[in-house]
Amino acid sequence: MSHGARVIRTGVSSAGPAAPPSAAASSAGSDAELVDGAYFRSCAGLLKVAQMISLLVGFISVNNSQWTDYSAYSYFQIVTMCDLVMILFFYIIHIFRIYRTLTCVSWPLAEFLHYLIGTILLLIASVVAASKSYNLTGLVAGATFGFLATVLCVLSIWSSYKVSCITQSTNAAV
Fold it and tell me: How many Cβ atoms sit within 10 Å of the Cβ of residue 65?
């Protein structure tokens, strides 16, 4: 039972000497690079950077203002920092293409679940922070950036779900 011919490319052929190392490296293309430069400029990469910046600004503005309710703002700070660390984790996963080597994890599902849970917690934290701000500018700014990060996370959920559905339908057709 034949499944078709396979071509195995090696550095040495029977027709002549081996190809120079620079030609072999250039033929490998983007697989040999350590960092995925295209992800920096992609929509998903820029969205993650915008999320991290808005979470960091929200954290800093709440941290540097006078608190009226300790538990509400400490919850806001914990949620923003945990969400920031997880977004940075997934950003590093994509930048260094770690998802190619760790195939035992469903990365789109993990990222989707992170954004789903993180967005719900961030929305709750932003609503609580906004309701307890008492018109103090730093607290209002923190809640506003929390809401902005929530909207950006919803965009990430939508794009993650869209990519997951396209991936599933493409695999089903093949």
Answer: 17
